[in-house]
Amino acid sequence: MTAPVLELRDVVKTYALKGAFGRSAGEVRAVDGVSFAIQKGDVYGLAGESGSGKSTIARMIMGLTPPTSGDILIDGQSILGRQATLAHRQQVQMVFQNPGASLNPRRTVGQSIRVALDAHHYAGDRKARVAKLLEMVQMPRHFADRYPHELSGGQKQRVAIARALAVEPRLLVLDEPTSALDVSVQARVIELLEGLVDQLGLTYLFISHDLSLMRNFAQDVGVLYLGKIVETGPVASVFADPRHDYTRLLLASVPVISAEEEALRPKIPLINGEIPTAEDLLALRTQAQTKEAQT
Amino acid sequence: MTALLSVQNLSVSFTTYGRRVEVLKSVSLDVPEGAQIALVGESGSGKSVTMKTIMGILPQPPAKIDGGAIFFDGRDLLTLPERERLKLRGTAMSMVFQDPMSSLNPVFTIYDQLGTILKYADRRLGRNRSGKERKARVLDVLAQVRMRDPERVAASFPIMLSGGMRQRILIAMALLSEPRLLIADEPGTALDVTTQAQILKLLKDLVTEKGLALLMITHNLGVVRETSGYTYVMNKGEIVEHGPTAGIFEAPKQAYTRDLIAAVPRLTGRDQ
């Protein structure tokens, strides 16, 4: 049994809350003891809404911010203590949600991809490599000379994927990679990503709030709520038989297009009016924690 | 033929840098009184231009209405004098906008904003309402969008409210002057799924309660199925298919609609 490509062990991230005049006002546990592992070639989905901690997890895996406690391992080796090193960046790359914002508007597609190659001191023929990368994401090579504004949303996201692949990473962190795209475009980008798994032996951490997409793209899913994974398992069984109330609420909220899907949605009444948001609950929980600490 | 809103053979083109592009090609759609209608299409299909033309907020130029008519309550909006049109916009027909962050002014309280809208709507319609009555009306509408504490919400600045609450403020805004037609432009897309589900349910409940007509403009087929009884599918400036929503999903007639439906990921997983 080889080590999983990515493993999180009881990862915690807390942020200090600043009160008036910089006084400390307690702390928020943005990520609260998260553990999961992804085997090579798998797609692991992290489902959660805003405030659930999914972006913080992505940032920690990318080495952009260290966890408060716990460990993050890539191929069985801890990444802690070697944040932001080239070796780490070479193994893990990220594809962001909004390709319009993540590509430099003043660089051509080729230049954008070449920056990644330069940063990693790529020794081979860069022009050929750019052409090869564009081919991998099924774009004609003459697109290397185009600027982002000349591309459609789907094309921009393909370029972002090509740039992430430039340094031959083992793991891609996909943060809502298709939520800015039309459904037909989304279907094609997902198809491309699936093809790349087999072709390049990639592994994905797929972060999304779109449960229907997750059902089709990921093998395993972790439902993240207020910094904790409240439910995890194979996506088919979690969705068919959700155990946690929050998973049920999420599934019941998905707008669906067929009677079969409707049958799968838990029949729970959606609360009409102000339900506590993640932020509210976070505040409540922080209050409870402070109280606990005081007694 | 007694639709509240009837768009007939509407054609619109845009001219930029001397190049003319036809954006709407003879678009026709009907919204009967009290009906819930969806207009669905991907980006660039022309659904927003249709909405803007109906509301009369299309920037002309660069846009130009090449032909057609838009009847609201039997009157053609396109030939109506601007003064008359003003009386309808934001009153008899109003809009629920998509982005609650950019549609609210960050430096005014909710009451300031809703009160001002109501004041101007009243003025356009020649209605008289005292400050006290106006306040009562605003609080009433806030209660209608299920705000638990309308007084507190009215005194809040937008930043003090959650995304879902802000979206509900936008719905309240649209309801202020008792419209007969609501046009909703992708409501809730900027929100979390659970919040979006609530917003859609609220909209549906309100529309049924008050017998309003709803034109839901969206790219999300799931939203279409949840909220509307009749659907128009739009692609490249044309209505490619229309019919009762259930029929469109069960037996789409056009290849475009079929492909669009096939592209939607299913909660049940892939077709076995």
Give an overview in words.
- The complex is a heterodimer of chains A (295) and B (272).
- Chain A has helices at 54-61, 86-91, 99-102, 109-119, 126-136, 153-165, 183-200, 211-217, 235-240, 245-253, 259-264, 278-294, and strands at residues 6-18, 24-38, 43-47, 69-74, 77-78, 92-95, 171-175, 203-208, 220-225, 228-234.
- By secondary structure, chain A is an alpha/beta fold.
- Chain A has one domain (6-294): P-loop containing nucleotide triphosphate hydrolases (Rossmann fold).
- In chain A, a hairpin with a 5-residue loop joins β1 and β2.
- The longest helix of chain B has 18 residues, at 193-210.
- Chain B is α/β, with parallel strands linked by helices.
- Chain B has one domain (3-263): Rossmann fold, CATH 3.40.50.
- Helix content of chain B is 38%, strand content 27%.
- The relative contact order of chain B is 0.17.
- Classes of the chains: A alpha/beta (295), B alpha/beta (272).
- Chains A and B meet through α7, α8, α10 and α11 of A and α6, α7, α8 and α10 of B.
Could you name the CATH homologous superfamily of chain B? P-loop containing nucleotide triphosphate hydrolases
Low-confidence stretches of chain B: none
Counted by DSSP, the helix tally of chain B is 10
Largest sheet of chain B: 6 strands, mixed
Our measurement of the CA-to-CA distance between the termini of chain A, rounded to an integer number of angstroms, reads 47 Å
| Structural class designation of chain B | alpha/beta
Here the CATH topology of chain A equals: Rossmann fold
Net shape of chain B: globular
**Radius of gyration based on Cα positions of chain B:** 19 Å
Q: What portion of residues of chain B belong to β-strands?
A: 25-35%
Tally of separate helices of chain A: 12
Average of the residue pLDDT scores of chain B: 87
Annotated CATH topology of chain B: Rossmann fold
* CATH architecture descriptor text of chain A: 3-Layer(aba) Sandwich
Oligomer: heterodimer
